[in-house]
Write a structure and sequence with these properties.
heterodimer, A: 113 residues, mainly beta, seven-stranded mixed beta sheet, four-stranded antiparallel beta sheet, B: 108 residues, six-stranded mixed beta sheet, 11 strands, 0% helix
Chain lengths: 113, 108
């Protein structure tokens, strides 16, 4: 497939557990983004990468959230000690370096019970 | 700080009627404005951006800096336009700030 791929599509976890969400961007896209969308809200920026480095991580809500992109392709969003308020759709997107057109994945639905 | 406001959660129109989805923004510099759309069971996708000054699927949007608005318009609504629409801005970087979205429902 040529689009942004995210796994898992759905994840239910218990409060306090650790979660990893994976994003596989479009081949050749150097920029990768993570957004979070809560019910009834628009997507909220978390972090974006240019290559392997985080160009802007100002949207990460606290130090329980961390993201990596070690080889400049696949990225993993990691959430420690999950809380019920972390329940949301986590969207990944990618683009060429200029960010002119950003392509979104279908999202990972995270439910913390 | 940058902010996008979409005052209507739901807009319901009849097929063939004109559509206007409102978007107002707050940004101290020169923003780039976008409209994104999400059809049922599909991923979020770009509809149009103000710098392109294009018409996509019959939709247009004009940036009004005086009113800080970027309303989305279409003269004649079609059933397939039913979707969730998000207005978004960026301050020249790659980080998008989205509004809360407007659900457009086109009724027959």
């Amino acid at each position: 497939g040529a689009g942004v791929s995210q796994t898992p599509s759905n994840k239910v976890t218990e409060k306090g557990k650790y979660v990893e969400l994976r994003c596989d961007p479009i081949s050749g896209h150097t920029a990768l983004y993570w957004y979070r969308q809560s019910l009834g809200q628009g997507p909220e920026f978390l972090i974006y990468f240019q290559g392997t480095g985080a160009a802007d991580d100002s949207g990460l809500p606290n130090d329980r959230f961390f993201a990596v992109r070690p080889e400049g392709s696949v990225s993993t969003l990691k959430i420690q000690r999950t809380e019920r308020g972390d329940s949301a759709v986590y969207l990944c997107a990618s683009s060429l370096e200029d960010g002119n057109t950003i392509y979104f994945g279908e999202g990972s639905w995270l439910t913390v019970v | 700080a940058q902010r996008v406001t979409q005052p209507e959660k739901l807009l319901s129109v009849f097929k063939g009627a004109p559509v206007e989805l409102k978007c107002n923004y707050s940004y101290s510099g020169s923003p780039e404005l976008f409209w994104y759309v999400q059809y049922s069971r599909q991923r979020l996708q770009l509809l149009l951006r103000h710098i392109s000054r294009e018409s996509i699927k019959g939709f247009t949007a004009d940036l009004n800096k005086g009113e800080t608005s970027f309303h989305l318009k279409k003269p004649f609504a079609q059933e397939e336009d039913s979707a969730m629409y998000y207005c978004a801005l960026t301050g020249g970087g790659n980080k998008l700030t989205f509004g809360t979205g407007t659900q457009l429902k086109v009724e027959l």
